[in-house]
Amino acid sequence: MPALTAPLELRRALRPLQRYRPAAPPLRRTLDEVATVELSARAGGLIIPVFRGVSRADALLQFVMDASSSMRVWERLFAELQQILGQLGVFRDVRVRYLHQGPDGAPAVSRSPDPAAAPLSSADRLSDPTGRRVTVVVSDCAGPLWHSGHAHRLLHQLGRQAPTAVLQPLPQRMWNRTRLPVTYGVLSRGEGPAGAVLKVGGDAATASAAQRPGTLAVPVLPPVAGALGAWARLLSGTGAGRISGAVAWVRADQQPTPAAGAGDRLSSFQLVSRFRSAASPVAGQLAVYLAAAPLHLPVMQLVQRAMLPDSGPSELAEVLLSGLLIRSKEGGADDEPWYEFADGVQEALLGPLGREEAVLVLKHCSAYIEQRFGRGGPNFPALALARLGDARHTPPFPRGTLDEDEPPGDDEGEEAEDRRVPHPFAEVAARVLERFVPLPEQFVPAAAPPLNAAVESARELLAQFESDGMVQDLIDAVQLLRGATEREEPAAFDPRLWAEFARCLLRLWEVQGGGELLSEAERAAERAAAHPRAVREQAVLARVLHVAAADRRRGDKRGALELLRRADRAYTVACAAPGLDPAEALRLTLERVRALEAQWRLGGDTALLQGAIGMLEEFADARPDQEHRPPGLPLAHGRTLLRLSGATGDTEQAQLYAGQAARSLREALAPGGHTVSGRARILLDLVDALLLSGEGLDEAWTLVEQSLATVHDERLLASLRIRAGRIRVARYERAGDAPRPADLDEAAEYFALATRGTVRDSRAHADLLAEWGATLLTRAQLSDGADCTGAAVRVLRDCRTETVAGTARQAERLLMLGKALMLRHRVTEDRGDLREAEHLFWLAAQEARDPLTAARCWLELGRSHLDAHRLLHRPARLDDAAGAFRDAAEAARTAETEPENPRQFLEAVELRAAAHHWRGTAYEEAGRPRAAREAYRAARTEWRRLPDGGGGTARLTSDRLAELER
Q1: Rounded-to-5 percentages of helix, strand, coil across the chain
Q2: What span, in angstroms and rounded, lies between the C-alpha atoms of 423 and 432?
Q3: Domains in the chain, number
Q4: Is the pLDDT of residue 241 over 70?
Q5: 691 with 726: CB under 8 angstroms?
Q6: pLDDT of residue 346
Q7: How confident is the prediction for the chain on average, in pLDDT?
Q8: Do 211 and 359 reside in the same domain of the chain?
Q9: Quick check: 532 and 520 in contact, CB under 8 A?
Q10: Are 14 and 85 in contact (CB under 8 A)?
Q11: Are 29 and 53 in contact (CB under 8 A)?
Q12: Sequence-ordered list of residues with C-beta below 8 angstroms from that of 386, at least 6 positions apart, any chain
């Protein structure tokens, strides 16, 4: 849901800023025709031009967001305000920055909310002695920079130079509980750069604060139209000149807040009591619900929307700033923050929670796990529901590690394959389980049964758990085997006992998590495999090491790789065991293939995938009878070939692998017995293989069309519609001289339908929007595609909003949005689209991580500067265009020296030639024929390096060069 309920009212309220003029001299000047005529007439016919400054849209806006952890709940508010301010057309540029605490504790700024995603710079870069920069800081004033006083000193520094304000998203009743308390008074414009230093009058407290030497008043604004409109009128001088508002007083020598001593720490009861006495009723109820949920920010927001749909970010912010939570040291896989309750707080909050509410909270957490980790993932809240209600047990192995019979959806790859559900999900479920259905004490057998009896009893308990889903059966099996191993005599060592103990420990770890269980399972498996006659026990060790590597890969990549190498060696020994059952041999081979694929994802060595394919083909050759060949064999073979095709840089080789993958996947799809969803997932892989192979589009379309009529699961339907759209796009691209625009229209319709079944705010949704927007952009570039420009801009703008800042995809998506805006500008001649496109191209060039993308961005920026010159008749834009084309040529030269494949090399040469050609055009329009000739000659040299000689653009270069030389 949007954070701002009335964006149009905010936009209207901020319109008075159009009359704001900075105190610095204007940067731009224009000819004053009337004054020139009058002065020239008095001069007796001598022409004396008179210029006047143009101060409209001469100011810059610095929109700064405090990047402390509690501000994550306000990211959508920040993005929506950024969009509103950028569309006002008031400022020459809107610069978005994020305020971090640097390694030395001092404030630092970057272009990303993640300090590791973009380099940090000193906060002094926000200063502007000329007074042209208006600064708005969005902060709840509760982060570490406010505790240390650095934020106050930064505000004092900026407020002395130009207008500065703090936008406080918290409710006003909480403002004086933050580190930036406010007073209320009457504000009026004062002296200084455009009234940057405000005059404040009001009650005695306000007057005494204003009289303190060295203090500076900074307006504090809520994100509502009335307050922002009054501030805009005061800044532009269009109102009555006096407004009532809140101000904070900052000093250049602001002292840090004293740290709380040991005697100031409150007990859990005091913390909860203080929170309930000051918090709103909705925030108090939200804290109770969150006590039964993992404190992962997306999950907390999900629980809030589900249990309290009428609440907003302010109630969640109350909980985050209540003192009940502390930031966890372990970060999430998607860089979202994790929190923990202070000691004893969770138990105090769980008191008012009813059984039905606990079941409902865990149910919503279960839905989040299904959306984020896939339906095959270990549904830990469902395990608690098995004791509270009617949930069933989960598959024995988590998605992305072992026993993965079905691939993930459209977000395949490293992240999808390693979707290990974090342990806090299991820990929270266990605590809620203990509260509502207390677990019995640890099982201690009265008399030690014989070892074989212990193993048999444990296997029966494990089978009982797999049948009924009762966690206590699994706990009893572990305790039984643990007691048997502790009483084992050294002379009676039995590797089967230790292998079964490791297997049950691993299963229990999958249910409730915990590093100690996994470490204990690893020790037990190593002891079982260390026996001289232990061969089959190597399979248990390999499985435990494989799972341990998947659990460790987030924080220790090198350690995970070493565990996977050890697992591969153990799999090799286990697969060579004599008398191995064919089904067991196939299972071990498939597990070994997944371990090799995990090594490839961590290390990037495609030889591991080739080795896995070789093992599968060797296993198949040992069973020449295809009718009795295990059905899982061609499926694994096809999927591994598909991964190898996507990882191969050589286009021809990738198509060859994809064709082989398609043949194996057809074989896997042929036998019956598949569920509707299972068949659909195999079909998705087959369609992907057909698309990559460049053949079989008709076959792919038939398969997708048939599945669309039988599948009813929303996620699978979305995946099928995405493939249908891709098939239509591929048909258009491979049509040769007779492409059908209708294919692009149908593809866009399928992508639009697919968005309904894709979870919003997920990476998959942003990727889908990018694919949809690219299709609309291609359609809009056709001669009859003017009607599609608006839709392309709208979809790509949403894609930009949902793309995480600082990621590798951001530059490409900014580039596409800029192209769409330029297309709409050429249709509607809207100057706002032209200005926004120029800004987006420049921003994309700055954010680009590879030189080839940077070259495309600089080239489009130069062309937009040329369009601006032709529309506005400003010679300075030609210099800007020439500089952008020069940067494009340099970036293309860098890409040419470091190509990943021959196709990228040719593209870099073509981009460099085009950059020189357009640079020659800019020089020619600027009246610089010599520079234009040199640029055209450089372009001709680059065109000749291409196999086709460059085509029509190369001929245009030669024609322009010949004309200039004549």
Answers
A1: 60, 10, 30
A2: 15
A3: 5
A4: no
A5: yes
A6: 79
A7: 80
A8: no
A9: no
A10: yes
A11: yes
A12: 392, 393, 469, 470, 471
Residue 189: partners with Cβ closer than 8 Å, 6 or more residues away: 195, 198, 199, 234, 237, 241
List the one residue out of 498, 493, 544 whose CA is nearest residue 522.
544
Give the range with max mean pLDDT: 232-241, 471-480, 824-833: 824-833
Structure tokens at 623: 């069973």
Pair 836, 815 in one domain: yes
The verdict on 47 and 70 lying in the same domain is no
Q: What is the pTM of this model?
A: 0.57
Q: What is d(CA 519, CA 363) in angstroms, rounded to the nearest whole number?
A: 30
Statement to judge: residues 204 and 348 lie in one domain: no
- Tell me which residue of 375, 371, 372, 410 sits closest to 723, measured CA to CA: 410
Instruction: In whole angstroms, give the CA distance from residue 512 to residue 383.
Output: 9
- The residue among 251, 286, 302 that closes a domain is 251
Q: Which region among 488-502, 625-639, 765-779 has the lowest average model confidence (pLDDT)?
A: 625-639
Residue 752 domain flag:
no
Is position 659 within any domain?
A: yes
> Between 355-373 and 281-290, two packed helices, what is the crossing angle to 10 degrees?
70
Same domain, 462 and 587: yes
Residues 15 and 42 in one domain: no
Q: List all residues 6 or more positions away from 949 whose beta carbon is below 8 Å from its beta carbon.
A: 943
- Of 285, 291, 279, nearest to 342 (Cα)? 291
- Give a yes or no: residue 899 inside a domain: yes
- Show Cβ contacts of residue 672 under 8 Å, excluding neighbours closer than 6 positions: none
Query: Are 135 and 123 a contacting pair, CB within 8 Å?
Result: no
* Six token digits for residue 283: 């925030």
Same domain, 202 and 291: no
Helices assigned H by DSSP within 873-901: 876-897
How many whole angstroms separate alpha carbon 383 and alpha carbon 953? Answer: 65
Q: Are residues 16 and 28 in the same domain?
A: no
> Which H helix or E strand runs over 612?
helix 606-621
| Residue numbers of the domain that contains 341 | 267-434
